[in-house]
């Protein structure tokens, strides 16, 4: 089935105002599907919508919403109106590095709502119509940090494991109904994420900096995997790293990851 027939007429991309989400929106539009763009910064969404409409001749809709708020769904569906969503990209997410116990619990709960509660609600809401239609797709944004437990990013890593598991479970469950689901597990990717996560790669050794992927390639890998794989890890080096981590007894050691994280995050490493 052609992309637009399987996943159209509308896609809904959360976190479309920056990074990987904006790239998803561009690449989905290039395949002839209209895109509803969701994030908090309305002007960014409107500018991206204009760019996409001019370049690809599809329609866009900007929906300003804070997905960490408890009641985000009703205004979002109201803004969508009768538009029929055949593709959901559960992309919006954030996380802050550092020691778990030094983080404010309310901030962690807001991250949990954004990274897990919102994608759960959206997958449940839009998935129901997809199952009835016997077509559609859902992309869950996980991470390599959702494959390897990541000290100094522990709660974020747990939220990404949650997305990975939900996506991979639904991949099998919804395949029977003609709905494609994939968990996308990027490694380090150029976006605004580092800034929000309190990470500064400028001082990293060049091999580590060279491992940073661009958002365009990450989104492309997710769309390529949709309809086939249950999990996609973009980039050969990250795929090899994840394979090696599975071969290590008990997985890649959190002890080792902790050392790497403390090296990469010198501001967090002063507790010995
Ligand atoms: N970059 C990486 O290295 C990396 C690696 C693995 C996985 N990921 C995952 O990839 C996804 C996209 O991240 P990115 O790298 O593209 O980060 P980004 O550039 O920081 O983009 C995050 C997006 O989420 C939106 N967002 C943040 N808080 C929101 C809220 N409360 N309500 C609604 N939207 C919100 C932001 O828009 P507004 O600020 O306008 O709301 C923005 O559009 C995330 O799920 C992240 O966990 C990223």
TrEMBL record:
Name of the protein in question: Oxidoreductase
InterPro entries: NAD(P)-bd_dom_sf (IPR036291), SDR_fam (IPR002347)
Family matches, as Pfam families: adh_short
The keyword Hydrolase is assigned to this record: no
Family, similarity comment: Belongs to the short-chain dehydrogenases/reductases (SDR) family.
Keywords: Oxidoreductase
Presence of the UniProt keyword Oxidoreductase in the record: yes
Superkingdom in the source lineage: Bacteria
GO molecular function, one term: oxidoreductase activity
